[in-house]
Specification:
The complex is a heterodimer of chains A (157) and B (46). Chain A is mainly alpha-helical and 157 residues long. Chain A is 54% helix and 11% strand. Chain A has a two-stranded antiparallel ribbon with strand order 2-3. Chain A is globular. Chain B is an alpha+beta fold and 46 residues long. Chain B is built from one helix and three strands. In chain B, strands 1-2 form a two-stranded antiparallel sheet. Chain B is globular, with a radius of gyration of 13 Å. The chains are: A mainly alpha (157), B alpha+beta (46). The interface between A and B is large, with 42 and 35 residues. Strand 1 of chain A pairs parallel with strand 3 of chain B.
């Protein structure tokens, strides 16, 4: 994963990479059950994403996107929401499909919702697309109950 | 330690592109100063 130039560039742009042995006292706080595990934390120590075992570089890039976007959403500032939306949209644009795509769609809906001053219509359009493309995915099932599938206003593409 | 085509164990990549910190406090301090996130890779050192 790590020798991949895109992964290396993304890591150095947005992260401080730290490699710890599983016996390191800090690791006990991270509740790691399997190796290797990669955890994305903000500087306060809040966890934003977790990845277990090895994966192809293109999947790992999506994992980094999910983690960074989640952290930016939690920052709660307008610029952070815009940055989260950009990160997620760029990840979705990198390729037609991938195992992280349902999760990327899910968080794109939320980042865009906040970026557009809590625009529920935008959020529901993206969640509709998520349910349409990945109806059996965990993330489609995580769309909350208050969401009404936009069956009367389906995506046109 | 190649697992299968396209996949690698992270330990294989040591010194092949990413400059890893190996001490928690220093890494956390850097993350605060540079306003970056921490990417924590937990492995078994040989």
């Amino acid at each position: 994963v790590y020798p991949d130039s895109a992964v290396t560039a993304t890591v150095h742009a947005a992260f401080v990479p730290v490699r710890l042995d599983y016996r390191d006292p800090k690791v006990r706080e991270l509740n790691v059950a399997w190796l290797p595990t990669v955890v994305i934390l903000d500087p306060r120590g809040n966890e934003h994403a977790r990845h277990v075992n090895a994966s192809p570089p293109e999947d790992f890039l999506d994992f980094l996107a999910v983690g960074e976007a989640h952290a930016r959403i939690k920052e709660g500032r307008a610029a952070s929401h815009a940055r989260a939306e950009t990160i997620l949209q760029e990840a979705l644009d990198r390729r037609d499909d991938g195992p992280f795509h349902p999760e990327l769609f899910y968080w794109l809906a939320i980042a865009g919702y906040f970026r557009r001053d809590q625009d529920g219509e935008y959020r529901d359009r993206v969640w509709t697309e998520l349910r349409r493309r990945y109806p059996d995915s965990l993330w489609a099932h995580r769309v909350p109950e208050y969401f009404t599938d936009a069956a009367s206003n389906p995506p046109t593409d | 330690v190649r697992l299968k085509e396209g996949k690698m164990a992270a330990s294989e990549a040591e010194d092949q592109g990413i400059s890893w910190e190996h001490e928690w406090e220093g890494a956390a301090r850097r993350a605060r100063n540079e306003r970056k996130l921490l990417l924590v890779d937990v492995e078994k050192d040989n």
